[in-house]
Automatic annotation (TrEMBL):
Family stated for the protein in its record: Belongs to the alanine racemase family.
EC id: 5.1.1.1
Protein name as annotated: Alanine racemase
SUPFAM superfamilies cross-referenced by the UniProt entry: Alanine racemase C-terminal domain-like (SSF50621), PLP-binding barrel (SSF51419)
Length: 385
């Protein structure tokens, strides 16, 4: 089957992706690398094609969440170093080493297990220390016991068949100005840990800035930033002009002309109060939109906002297109992106949840094909014919 843009589809601009990467590289400066996070299928944009483009434009390292995500890249021929942001079962250590993957060392017990596996395989494992500065996720709990964690880290880096080259943490609330004191405390703990390790003779690549911290706390850039949402053009923080990488489109499949008193959809959650034109579009909750957007969010039809009415179904939803001119079956509807010179961001849709724009792109269903564009021309699609 040949996939066309005839139901619901995403358009991913490789030009915007490349531009965003270059702008982030310029923002951080030549002394700071940009680790591009492609976990979650590159936040729904398609990890393989996104990684290929990042490799082409000079990215030096990628980040994923799972071993499966890393292996997908390797099987597609992506050769860049890949940091796993979470641990893997120690039994898979040999596979990680064979594929040039960098593992996070979250505590001494885990480090000893993967070290033993590396010794058994007769190879050297690449790794970064993960420290917990207040997020309460993976890592040595430096916010609770700095001295103990320093001692533990020094034992870890001495384990056999281990090449520990970096240290990182993750911020809990770097995008929230009301939590800046907490973020600065996390930064302070990270700085102290790094300095004490260096004083003990262990110099490590330091990275702690996620996307919000990259924009709001330049002092946290250190040797490398880790950015996902910024890379894809999600930037509610300003200060850097980035382009949204994805647009999402669908088509009108039927138009209904309803009378006052007619109801729409499951549960009859919408009642027409006037003669109402309803357009049915094949984009439902299995495709990625949250059902709580029912009777709240809008899409664009001919550049005009059309409200989602009635309960969103698994495979479709209903738009009130009353008063919008020249509406026809087969017409393109913009879920987010550009439409007749009008732009609607993904945030405009997810604010109805409430949620965040990356949540929407990250959960786009597998039956929504991604078309990759360069100079407005399709150069790849993530689904086979």
């Amino acid at each position: 089957m040949k996939y066309e843009r005839d139901r619901t589809w995403a358009e991913v601009s490789l030009d915007h992706l490349a531009s965003n990467f270059q702008k982030l590289s310029e923002w951080t400066g030549p002394a700071c690398d940009v680790l591009c996070v492609v976990k979650g299928n590159a936040y729904g944009h398609g990890a393989i094609e996104v990684s290929r483009e990042l490799e082409r434009v000079g990215c030096k390292i990628l980040g994923v969440a799972t071993l499966e995500e890393a292996m997908e890249l390797r099987e597609a021929g992506i050769r860049l170093p890949v940091l796993l942001l979470g641990p893997i079962p120690p039994s898979h250590t040999a596979l990680a080493m064979e594929n040039n993957l960098i593992l996070p060392l979250i505590d001494e017990a885990y480090a000893r297990e993967v070290s033993a596996a590396a010794v058994s395989a007769g190879r050297t494992l690449r790794a970064h220390l993960k420290i917990d500065t207040g997020m309460s996720r993976y890592g040595l709990p430096v916010s609770k016991d700095m001295d103990g964690c320093i001692a533990e880290a020094l034992r870890i880096v001495q384990l056999p068949n281990m090449q520990v080259s970096g240290v990182f943490t993750h911020f809990a609330a770097a995008g929230d100005p009301y939590e800046d004191d907490f973020t600065r405390r996390q930064m302070g703990l990270f700085r102290i840990f790094s300095e004490r390790m260096e004083a003990a003779g262990v110099k490590l690549i330091r990275h702690c800035a996620n996307s919000p911290a990259t924009i709001r706390f330049p002092q946290a850039h250190y040797d490398m930033i880790r950015t996902g949402t910024l890379l894809y053009g999600f930037n509610p923080f300003g200060r850097l002009e980035l382009e949204p990488v994805m647009e999402l489109k669908t088509r009108i499949t039927q138009i209904k002309h309803l009378a006052p008193g007619d109801t729409v959809g499951y549960g009859r959650l919408f009642t027409c109060r006037r003669p109402t034109d309803i357009a049915i579009v094949p984009f439902g909750f299995v495709d990625g939109i949250h059902r709580s957007a029912s009777n709240k969010a809008y899409m664009l039809v001919n550049g005009k906002p059309a409200k989602i009415v009635g309960k969103i179904c698994m495979d479709l939803c209903f738009l009130d297109v009353t008063g919008i001119e020249d509406v026809a079956v087969g017409q393109i509807v913009t879920v987010f992106g550009w439409d007749h010179g009008v732009y609607q961001s993904a945030y405009a849709l997810t604010d109805a949840y409430p949620g965040s724009a990356p949540e929407l792109t990250a959960v786009l269903g597998t039956r929504v094909p991604r078309f990759y564009l360069r100079n407005q021309e399709v150069v790849a699609c993530d689904q086979k014919e």
